From TrEMBL:
SMART domains membership: C1, CH, PH, RhoGEF, SH2, SH3
Protein name as it appears in the record: Osteoclast-stimulating factor 1
Keywords of this entry: ANK repeat, Guanine-nucleotide releasing factor, Lipoprotein, Metal-binding, Phosphoprotein, Repeat, SH2 domain, SH3 domain, Zinc, Zinc-finger
One Gene Ontology cellular component: cytoplasm
Source lineage: Eukaryota, Metazoa, Chordata, Craniata, Vertebrata
Function noted in UniProt: Induces bone resorption, acting probably through a signaling cascade which results in the secretion of factor(s) enhancing osteoclast formation and activity.
Gene Ontology MF term list: guanyl-nucleotide exchange factor activity; zinc ion binding
Domain named Calponin-homology (CH): residues: 1-125
PANTHER family, alphabetized: PROTEIN VAV, PROTO-ONCOGENE VAV
GO biological process, one term: intracellular signal transduction
């Protein structure tokens, strides 16, 4: 067995890689393993599996895929622990960049396996070295980011969940024979759970205050008390009051006013944002004090015995508030499900929306604090950086590139950090330190793609241009591979889109990215602007606040400007019965040149993508359409596409040869020499051929049903089994031959419907339109964000923007 496959199997045995990871798929390559390891996360988890607590996972970045800086920092943490805790010599280890750039992957694997099994297998490292050569070029072309990869990484977010469940456990009343859990009974159970858990939670908060905080005030200074207990006192006051109103509503008003309680307390509960973002530091400070001071450790044990007979420590209890605030929407969701009165149901849905918004807001505060940590790491690594990097927005991507300018014609090796508003150009010094060379503020520049030098496929020949507002002088940015250029170009376009979004001047507004100091709601949707910096947009004229996706729906600006109305939206109207044809992409397009002002956002195209036209005119150079491959809408130059034909000219033998290696359900439509059409499909390991007859402008495969076009017929049988017409062919037309097959099945956790529009802020996120049906791929690891798929595109989206299993609530 090759060295890399041996390593992959051991990683699975050590519960570092999941059993169904792509390295186990047929056709897997060594670059699949390299991609899994190169961010350092799984290596650190490996050390913890070998020696518990060897690495504090809070000290590493768990999702650093777009940041070379953070990946290398994780790898260096791994190497440092190997020396400190596993007593390996530096000469026995690889260099951090050897793994990240996979320059000597055989060496990396040799030392990796040595650490894994502690066996001397170096004799294998000298064989089959050729499969490891060239990985440095291949690795940048591996763009899939596999969330299942991190399934076995310790999940700090779930810390305290079992403690919460134990504390909140309610005493179930025995059912009588007449009680058979009717709809009314289930609703009563939901109300009882809301009331009882609120009572128990309020008691828990008061216990923390009475049995821990007050006694410790005699041992610790005020600053230490605040750093450990944060704003627990404020939370106690809020929940005492809230509990009283919950009890009154349920016991005296039959819970008809319960929705109003949650609406009234939504803004006050935003205090949880501060608590949840600081509780990690609080527990860390508590651990430090407990380990360094014997009197504190003994006092904590004494307090725990008085509070709960020693069952839960203060550290345990501090994790409970974070769990509680994220449970309200789940409790209300169950109550909505079992409420039948239409008015009450609508009212509770309003409260459910409010608590979902609250949960998402709390999660975004936590998420932004993680981003601030990243920015702080960047800031400290740039020795002469005096300006705060947080002023430039959220980080997008960082890494090595070459740059030349109109002033300095020669290419220079540089390291760049791209943010929403600027790109920070640095010179790499030693280790993790950089010297600032230049800050390029993106507002003054536009992007232009350049492909003239790419035909030779040489390293560092892939570039795009940053041009000033006059389209002349600027910068040439060079990248090692085509895929790296594509990643950077996408992130530049996303940064430009965040800074100057579509609809930023809608209704005479002038919206700009803005940091809100106070909690603010969007004027269009009334939901919170979430996070702690650059939460949304504000009009410079009327100060109106809005989400990026809501800019086109806000009311008209209250202060009209002199040049209002200069920009008009270009619309091409088509009569309803007219259906535009599908097109196939013949040339790539990444948004440069951009569509004319007023048209809308560009639509990225990759060769072979299928485009469903929505607006087009033979006299126009720009068309609008939906990319069926990526699931996105936008404008593109019409010369980049050609008419799409799903029909191939071939005979039975040629069709069989093409389909035999594919999975069942793969099909193609072919045209025979006589001009007749047929469907060839693989089913039960055999190739079946179905004749298509055409007469009087109609297409059919039997006498029962006719279609006006081939595409209409294919779309019908993609949704309906052929069994109705051919008893021994029980399958739909599943996968067009031109569509690449998935190498492994993607697990799904159900579907959800988008309740609001959502505009992605970076490449990892998934844009949604109201009404979209999203396949849920993962619900964990992203603090209120789920991973899903819509129109073939995969990414993250806020969980409170969708409604799961929505049919239950209709």
């Amino acid at each position: 067995m090759e060295l890399w496959r041996q390593c992959a199997m051991w990683l699975i045995d050590c519960r570092v890689l999941p059993e169904n990871h792509r390295v186990t798929w047929e056709g897997a390559q060594v670059c699949d393993l390299a991609q899994a390891l190169r961010d350092g996360v799984l290596l650190c988890q490996l050390l913890n599996n070998l020696l518990p607590q060897a690495v504090n996972l809070r000290e590493i970045n768990l999702r650093p895929q777009m940041s070379q800086f953070l990946c290398l920092k994780n790898i260096r943490t791994f190497l440092g622990v190997c020396q400190e805790r596993f007593h390996l010599r530096k000469s026995e280890l690889f260099e951090a960049f050897d793994l990240f750039d996979v320059r000597d992957f055989a060496k990396v694997l040799t030392h990796h396996i040595y650490l894994l099994i502690c066996l001397s297998i170096r004799k294998y490292a000298m064989t089959n070295d050729e499969i490891y050569s060239g990985l440095s070029d291949q690795i940048d072309d591996t763009v899939d980011e596999d969330d299942d990869l991190y399934d076995f990484v310790e999940d700090e977010e779930n810390e305290g969940d079992e403690i919460y469940e134990d504390l909140m456990r309610t005493d179930e009343q025995p059912e009588t024979v007449s009680q058979q859990k009717t709809g009314v009974d289930k609703r009563e159970c939901c109300l009882q759970e809301i009331r009882q858990t609120e009572e128990k939670y309020t008691d828990t908060l008061q216990s923390i205050l009475q049995h821990f905080m007050k006694p410790l005030e005699r041992f610790l200074v005020a600053e230490e008390i605040e750093s450990i207990f944060i704003n627990i006192e404020d939370l106690v006051h809020i929940h005492r009051s809230m509990l009283g109103e919950v009890q009154t509503s349920i016991q005296q008003y039959g819970a008809k006013t319960l929705y109003q309680v949650f609406l009234n307390y939504k803004e006050r509960l935003l205090l949880y944002g501060r608590y949840c973002s600081q509780v990690e530091a609080a527990t860390k400070h508590l651990d430090k004090l407990s380990n360094s001071r014997e009197d504190i450790r003994m006092k904590l044990e004494e307090c725990s015995k008085r509070a709960n007979s020693g069952r839960f420590s203060l550290r345990d209890l501090l994790m409970v508030p974070m769990q509680r605030v994220l449970k309200y929407h789940l409790l209300l969701q169950e109550l909505v499900k079992h409420t039948t009165d239409p008015t009450e149901k609508d009212n509770l849905r309003t409260a459910l929306d409010a608590m979902r918004d609250l949960a998402q807001s709390v999660n975004e505060v936590k998420r932004d604090n993680e981003i601030i940590k990243q920015i702080t790491d960047f800031q400290l690594s740039i020795v002469n950086m005096t300006q705060s990097l947080a002023l430039y927005g959220r980080p997008k991507i960082d890494g090595e590139l070459k740059i030349c300018s109109s002033e300095k014609k020669s290419k220079q090796d540089r390291y760049a950090f791209l943010f929403d508003k600027a790109v920070i150009i640095c010179k790499k010094k030693s280790g993790e330190t950089f010297e600032l060379k230049e800050v390029i503020e993106l507002q003054r520049y536009q992007i232009r793609d350049e492909t003239t030098g790419e035909k030779d496929h040489k390293k560092w020949s892939y570039l795009f241009l940053l041009l000033d507002c006059y389209g002349s002088c600027g910068y040439d940015l060079f990248f090692k591979t085509r895929e790296m250029k594509k990643k950077w170009l996408e992130q530049f376009e996303m940064a430009m889109s965040n800074m100057c979004p579509e609809n930023s001047t809608a209704n005479n507004h002038d919206f700009q990215m803005h940091c809100y100091e106070e909690t603010t709601s969007c004027k269009a949707c009334s939901m919170l602007l979430r996070g702690i910096f650059f939460q949304g947009y504000r009009c410079t004229r009327c100060k109106m606040a809005a989400h990026k996706e809501c800019l086109g729906r806000v009311p008209a600006c209250g202060r009209n400007s002199d040049n209002s109305g200069n920009t008009k939206k270009v619309r091409l109207h088509l009569s309803a019965p007219f259906r535009l044809p599908k097109m196939e992409v013949s040339q790539e397009y990444y948004g440069l040149p951009p569509p004319p002002v007023g048209f809308g956002q560009p639509l990225q195209l990759s060769k072979g993508d299928i485009i469903e036209l929505t607006r087009a005119n033979v006299d126009m150079h720009w068309w609008e359409g939906r990319n069926l491959t990526a699931g996105q809408m936008g404008w593109f130059p019409c010369q980049k596409v050609k008419p799409y034909s799903s029909v191939r000219n071939m005979d039975r033998t040629a069709a069989k040869n093409l389909l035999m290696s594919r999975s069942d359900g793969t099909f193609l439509v072919r045209q025979k020499d006589g001009g007749e059409f047929a469907i060839s499909i693989k089913f039960n390991m055999d190739i079946r051929h179905i004749k298509i007859t055409a007469s009087e402008g109609l297409y059919r495969i039997n006498d029962k049903k006719a279609f006006k076009g081939l595409i209409e017929m294919i779309q019908f049988y993609q949704q309906n089994s052929l069994k109705e017409y051919f008893k021994d062919v029980d399958t739909t037309l599943q996968t067009p031959y031109k569509q690449p097959e998935q190498r492994g099945s993607i697990r799904s956790f159900g579907v959800a419907r988008a309740r609001y529009d959502f505009s992605a802020r970076d490449r990892s996120e998934l844009s949604l339109r109201e009404g979209d049906t999203i396949k849920i791929l993962s619900k964990k690891g992203h603090s209120g964000w789920w991973k899903g798929e819509v129109y073939g595109r995969v990414g993250l989206f806020p969980a409170n923007y969708v409604e799961e299993d929505y049919s239950d609530y209709c």
